[in-house]
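Long-time lurker. I teach an intro course on protein structure, and each term I like to show students one example going from raw sequence to a predicted 3D structure in token notation. This year I'd like something fresh instead of my usual example. Would anyone be willing to generate the tokens for the chain below so I can use it in lecture? Attribution to the forum is fine with me.
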Amino acid sequence: MNSPKTPRSKRQANDRWDYENMITLGCKVKRDIALLFKEYAQMQNTTANALLKEYVEKCVSEYLNSTETDEDNE
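-- Reply from a regular --
Happy to contribute to a lecture. Here you go:
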């Protein structure tokens, strides 16, 4: 059973929101490392994208916490 197509206006609105609010981060790694990482993600029942996003959010959170702590110590 096919799901109904998303209306063009909704796709355009989603694309516009993504353009204004999202950025794609990327890095190049050797093919064998990328394939192993994807395999690792699959073993964790997730995706490489989800793992990378989680790591970025963790790093940003730690960074923000450390800058708040630095400001409190001044």
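Some talking points for your students: The CA atoms of residues 16 and 22 lie 10 Å apart. The mean pLDDT is 92.
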